[in-house]
Design a protein that fits this description.
The complex is a heterodimer of chains A (297) and B (184). By secondary structure, chain A is mainly beta. Chain A has 3 helices and 14 strands. By secondary structure, chain B is of the alpha+beta class. Classes of the chains: A mainly beta (297), B alpha+beta (184).
């Protein structure tokens, strides 16, 4: 009995003396992790041609130069397309954590475009998490070409077209992200009566991270059949994102020349597999206009 | 005799229990600062978990890397994605001891210089560190402060050549934790 008591007391003292660092670290454990918003699903606001789920961060202005050279299969005379170019300049601004506004000007049909992009759902990890991110993209484009037949009655509204998209994306792992983009394109003016004013399409794209700073991207746009009389192809693009400090360089080959939604979804002419390929790049540069509270003086 | 041992052990056990005063915080501050001629980079974390055992001198920290706030959103993204790889290594931890514990009187207000020794783990790499700081006892609280330098290269954090001039080789880390008595 006495031995047993000694043993118990001894064990008790050893136990209490043993409160070491591990116990102290256990004190800091906060149990299951709180839901945490998943970031960096893609490197920039563009997958390749199309919009990605990413917005410019709150208070950040993004300047994008998108450039497509001419067709690769034009031969040495055109230096494999390098003699020609189609360009779009764009500015995008993160108004808050969810809303972004953008403006752009493309050389293709001398088009101005404006858009808003709103994050409806944000993917999160941890307990009670959201499996996907969902954004709404809504844009308008205005071509400013001279009227083909100035003598007839022309309507300003016939220059307008609209694109509305839902961007549904998931970052499956650190390396793999995929995005599905159902789209509605409305054109105020179409070439013939057989052309639809409202066109439906869907985009599928993704990225695979090769290293921390480079990713391989692919994107395909499927335009539902029998909606247009134009001889158009579905848009396919393969790209490589290279990140260097404040810039991201997106290099790509694609069968679409223009860089804004209506045009590359419904007006792509090139046949990807016959070499009608455009080499191109997007360069993004970010400017922080609004600093977080603790940093603003 | 056996009675004596029993009671001595019992007294010992309970006295340790009573004296094992622990201090804890969940909103300590850690900042870091990288200074180069090209740019300064700083980040603040105000959700640092830390605990101190005043009896043994054990001092521990647990820092959620994603809680570091930067001036520029892109810096924060690069920090988490490319440098410390927060998805793989969510926390940095320190597990160490106040070496000169006997020089601190936790029941008397004052500022005590301390030497802290232990294991610092960042980016999954553990290094022994030995740094100086201060402990201020005031109103039953303990304010631990330290400033030291950490080299990213020591923790396998690779910095590409293109931005080498933008990021300092040694990064100044400032710790400021206000620990309160843990009520059991």
């Amino acid at each position: 009995m006495k031995k047993a008591m000694c043993l118990i007391a001894g064990m008790l003292s050893i136990l209490t003396l043993h409160t070491g660092a591990q116990d102290l670290l256990d004190l800091l454990d906060e149990g299951p992790a709180k839901p945490e918003v998943v970031t960096a699903t893609f490197k920039t606001t563009r997958l390749v041609n199309g919009q990605s789920i990413e917005n410019p961060a709150n208070g950040v202005l993004v300047f994008i130069i998108s450039h497509r050279f001419g067709r690769l299969n034009q031969g040495a005379y055109e230096l494999f397309g390098l003699d020609q170019s189609t360009i779009r300049f764009g500015l995008e601004y993160g108004v808050n954590d969810r809303l972004a506004l953008g403006l752009g000007r493309s050389s293709y049909q001398k088009t101005f475009d404006g858009f808003l992009k709103y994050r409806i759902l944000r993917q999160s990890s941890g307990k009670g998490s959201m499996p996907v991110s969902l954004s709404l993209f809504s844009s308008m484009a205005i071509n400013s070409l001279k009227w083909q037949v100035p003598e007839r009655k022309n309507f300003q509204t016939s220059r307008y077209s609209y694109v509305h998209q839902l961007l549904l994306a998931r970052k499956f792992s650190n390396r793999l992200s995929l995005q599905l983009t159902p789209s509605l394109i409305h054109k105020n003016l179409v070439p013939t009566e057989d052309d639809k004013n409202n066109l439906f399409a869907a985009g599928l794209g993704g990225r695979f991270k090769l290293t921390n700073r480079t990713t391989f991207n692919a994107e395909y746009w499927y335009l539902l059949p029998d909606q247009t009389t134009l001889d158009v192809k579905n848009c396919l693009a393969l790209g490589l994102d290279v990140e260097t400090g404040g810039h991201v360089f997106q290099l790509m080959v694609t069968n679409a020349q223009p860089q804004f939604e209506r045009a590359f979804i419904t007006e792509t002419q090139g046949n990807f597999f016959k070499g009608d390929l455009y080499f191109g790049f997007n360069i993004t540069r970010v400017f922080t206009l609004k600093k977080p509270k603790e940093f603003s003086e | 005799m056996k009675h004596l041992i029993f009671y001595a052990a019992l007294v010992l056990a309970f006295s340790y229990q009573a004296a094992a005063q622990k201090y804890i915080t969940k909103n300590g501050k850690i900042s870091f600062f990288s200074s180069t001629p090209i740019e300064n980079i700083e980040a603040h974390n105000k959700q640092v978990n830390s605990a101190l055992d005043a009896t043994t001198g054990e001092f521990v920290f647990k820092v959620l890397m994603k809680s570091f706030a930067f001036e520029k959103a892109l810096m924060q993204e690069h920090f988490n994605e490319n440098y410390v790889e927060s998805d793989k290594f969510p926390n940095a931890t320190f597990n160490g001891k106040i070496v000169n514990l006997s020089e601190i009187n936790f029941s008397k207000a004052g500022v005590y210089p301390v030497t802290i020794q232990g294991d610092l783990t960042i980016h999954g790499v553990t290094k022994k560190i030995n740094e100086k700081g201060t402990v201020e006892v005031k109103d039953g609280k303990v304010n631990g402060k330290a400033k030291f330098y950490v080299k990213p290269a020591d923790y396998n954090i690779s910095i590409p050549k293109t931005v080498m001039k933008n990021i300092a080789e040694s990064i100044e880390v400032t710790v400021d934790v206000m620990l309160e008595k843990l009520n059991k």
